[in-house]
Amino acid sequence: MKFGIFHELATPRPFTAENESKVLQNALEQVRLADELGFDTVWAVEHHFLEGYSHSSAPEVFLTACAVQTKQIRIGHGAVVCVREMNHPIRVAERAATLDLISGGRLEFGTARSSTWTELGGFEADPDRTKQDWDEYVRAIPGMWTQERFSWKGNCFSMPERAVLPKPMQKPHPPMWVTVTSPGTELDAAERGLGCLGVATASLSEQERRTREYHRRIQSCEPAGLVVNDQVATLNFMHCHEDLATGAKRGMGFLGLFGLLNSHLLFTREAYPTTAYQSLGGVSAPAASKGGGNPGAAYGVPDGVCIGDPKAIVEAIKRWESVGVDQLNFLVNACEVLPQEQVLESMRLFAREVMPAFRRGGSVRPDVGPSTTDRAR
Amino acid sequence: MLVGTADPARFEKQAPTLADFDARALELRDCVFVQALSEIDAAGMCEMLPPALHPTLPPVVGWSAFEVPDSEWGGFRFAELRIECRSGLRPRGLLVGCVVDSEAARCGLAARFGFRAVLGEVQIARAYDETRLRVARGGRLWLDLSLRAPQRLGETDTQFVSSLHPAHTPLGFRLLQVDVEHAVKRAERGRLDLAHFDAAAWGEPAIRPSLALPGVVGRADLSIRPIRFVCRADILAFEGTESVLAADGAR
After folding, report:
1. What is the arithmetic mean of pLDDT over A211-230?
2. In angstroms, rounded to a whole number, what is the distance separating the alpha carbons of residues B153 and A186?
3. Of these four, A171, A216, B32, B141, which has the most CB atoms within 10 Å of its CB?
4. How far is A47 from chain B (nearest CA, A)?
5. Phi (first) and psi of residue A369, to 5 degrees
6. Per the CB < 8 Å rule, is A259 touching B89?
7. Considering the entire predicted model, what is its pTM?
8. Chain A 198-237, CB below 8 Å of chain B: which residues?
């Protein structure tokens, strides 16, 4: 089992320079500590216009700061929105390769298509074609990284033969992932040999079903890149405290606010009738489907969430491990609800009391590196 | 976190009264439906909602209209305007106003489900290239929109969101959660052309449409379920939601 921290850069109102800066600086301090403690990956999402919920609109800049302030932790660019109105594929390839070089070959490259009308509408993107765009990006970008000169004629974009530079440090190229919000996207990932980066909080039973099917399908994949990444990662929330009740109370504090902010976004399906988005999406969608339609229903601690004392968290992680999840990526705060020192202390306790249970030979320091499989096309 | 700031008393005016919570569902077969949404100016979005609710980002309003071929009140048409919002984590639409072209249906919808409805004219005109919805009352045009260039959708591709209706109830003034199940038989998406919208006539003059979103026209069986939950307007839905069902599901 690998562990990552996951940054949305949720920011409290008012959106002053002071508050924005505090969120960024606290996040960077968490990343430096995560590196020291042996966390495997730091992920930063790409979102736009999501007031309060996520101010991570320039993750490549934030992640560059992470890269230069750390030594071993892998840098999760997760995920780049692969939609023509938002990021040109050539610029995506260039930025990612540069980040891989700056980080000394530590890049994990995530891809996505956005699930909110808040974002797609803001860029006047067409929801009907985002999946087609994404599919073209994930097939084209590995070529830009690996071919001396590259040309492309597609539906989404075309380019004459050019040298896309620089090339990434990792050979043949960094591990590729796709974020999975809607059920079924894990199959898209499997069929293309891409890692499955879960960002919605699926239940354990649902995750087990999806993971089993993912692993079955990826055996016969047609890789989009030159390597297959067959890892399954999923989003979780973590707050670890010696006292179970204190850990649960603090953890639910930021988890609840994060879910509430997420639910206020306008998901694509709600605003734009289409066959291309089959679920409301969002981290709160599973919770909102419970309670028999009662807005006052108490959701409680979701199944398998990693908040509480070390013993409870070890038990939760063992359950994720048993359903085939390779990596848990933790949100550790939202909108600075928890004081920074509480967040850092929680991470230290997690590393001291929880991580050793999942490291070979009990070592805290993992074998860090891409667990991808070379596969010639 | 954004939350509504409107005085709850504002929603009590003209709110209908429910003598009791009717346990019967209302089944409306083979209805033509129109649903269209538009983003609105964000300025004032919190002032349009009571403290129980949160605005969406961006703020959105929706118009719906139904042509009901037959019912216990005979055939009728009705149209409504809602502000899309969140009640706790859940998507909801706060009813602003409703127009019904049958007095019997208007009275029934108000008494059983808290529709704040007035008698008026609702026209749904369908053609191959567009569907036009016009709503008027007493010679004043309230709404004129068209859904153009239809494209076929699947039967499950349209999202329908439950409503909240301000109403006086046996529990006091509350927001009724009105759940309408849509069994869609056919649906087409169309490009929204909003030719006329009289926000003041509908009851919320501050609404200013800014970006038209695609709409849907289709045919569906509707089932308006008995009221299950009500919510106080003055506090967050997490704290102010009450079930009107007994523990065994009976009333």
Report:
1. 95
2. 24
3. B32
4. 13
5. 160, 160
6. yes
7. 0.92
8. none
